[in-house]
Amino acid sequence: MPRRSRDENAPRTEGELRSAAPNDPEAWPLLVAFDLDYTLWDLWIDTHISPPLRRKGDVLNQLIDRRGQTLEFYPEVPSLLAELKERRIHVAAASRTSAVDLAKEALGMLLLPGPSGEHVRAITYFNSMEIYPSENSNQCLIVLHT
Questions:
Q1: Checking DSSP bridges between strand 128-132 and strand 90-96, what pairing results, if any?
Q2: In tens digits, what is the pLDDT along the chain, a chain of 146 residues?
Q3: Which residue ranges have biased composition labelled Basic and acidic residues (predicted)?
Q4: Which residues are paired to 91 by β-bridges?
């Protein structure tokens, strides 16, 4: 959903984009929805990961399954999630997987750096989660109505 220009009466030609400074609150979306598999991490959780998951102490952004397979966000994801939270942008997970509980468990176990240097669980960066064994388009509709 696009944000309105501050000057709603200013004439615009169709397709014209307004420029915005990075600190302009209108330069940021109201909601960002992420798929999990091959968007936030580089695998399909329902086919590549075998429970149980474990974390070695307070290691950041890494879990290990029973076969030794690692599960971690892409390197840019933790800082992106932190930036979105700092800007108070609604963050949603909208993902199709047959391993619903495992995906939620992974988000609850993954530790990320917090704003003050403390460790926080990845799940705390998400305002909404629609993780089901069905099509993503249906989930996005649910997220948008919450």
A1: parallel
A2: 444 444 545 555 555 655 667 677 677 888 999 999 999 999 999 999 999 999 999 999 999 999 999 999 999 999 999 999 998 999 999 999 999 999 999 999 999 999 888 999 999 999 999 998 865 555 455 455 55
A3: 1-17
A4: 32
Bond from prior residue into 51 cis (ω within 30 degrees of 0): no
> Of 51, 27, 145, whose CA–CA distance to 105 is shortest?
51
Per DSSP, what are the bridge partners of residue 142?
none
**H or E element, residue 94:** strand 90-96
Of 104, 137, 102, the residue nearest 122 (C-alpha): 104
Positions marked active-site: 35, 37
Neighbours of 102 (CB within 10 A): 20
Helix extents (H) in 4-133:
45-48, 77-86, 100-109
